[in-house]
Amino acid sequence: MFDASERRGAAIEPREIKQESNALLRITWGDGQVCEYSAPQLRRACPCAQCVNEWTGQRVLKADAVSEDLAINDLQIVGRYALNFRWSDGHETGIYSFRYLRGLCDRNQEAPVG
Ligand SMILES: [Zn+2]
C-alpha cells in the first residue's frame, strides 16, 4: 500500500472545490481524482488541537459527539494550502490541509490489498 502522506504535486492541488450542499463537499484534484466528503465525516476528522491531543496525536473528539445532521455553514481557503470550515455546531478551528483532505479520501477508497 502506498503512503498517502507521500503524495505531492497535482494529487494534492484541488482543481475544483465545490460545496454541493450544506452537508456535502466535492473536491476534484489535479490528477483527476474526485472525492466527496460528508459534513459529519469531515467534522469527525477535524485536526485541530481541541479535537486531537497535540502531544499524543490521539483523537479526543468522540465520533458519536458529531451529529449526522451536521452541516457546513461556511468554508474558506486558507492561504493556498488548506480549507477552514465553519460547522453548524459552532466549531471552526480546524485547518484541513489539501494533503490531509486527499489522504482522508484515499483512506476511504476500496484499495486492492498488496
Ligand atoms: Zn476541531
Summarize this entry quickly:
With 114 residues, the protein is α+β, with helices and mostly antiparallel strands. The protein has helices spanning 39-44, 98-108, and strands spanning 14-21, 24-29, 34-38, 72-78, 82-87, 95-97. The protein has a single domain (4-107), classed as NE0471 N-terminal domain-like.
Percent range of helical residues: 10-25%
Summarize the helix and strand pattern as letters.
Answer: EEEHEEEH
Q: Unreliable runs, pLDDT <50, ≥5 residues?
A: none
Distance between the termini: 6 Å
Query: What small molecules accompany the polymer chains?
Result: zinc ion
Give the biggest sheet.
Answer: 3 strands, antiparallel
Give the averaged pLDDT, no decimals. Answer: 91
Compute the gyration radius: what is it?
Answer: 14 Å
| SS strand fraction | 25-35%
The CATH class:
Alpha Beta
The total of helices stands at 2
Q: What is the third-level CATH name, the topology?
A: NE0471 N-terminal domain-like
**CATH architecture verdict:** 2-Layer Sandwich
Strand element count: 6
Morphology call? globular
Strand order of the largest sheet: 1-2-3
Helix and strand composition category:
alpha+beta
Query: How many independent structural domains?
Result: 1
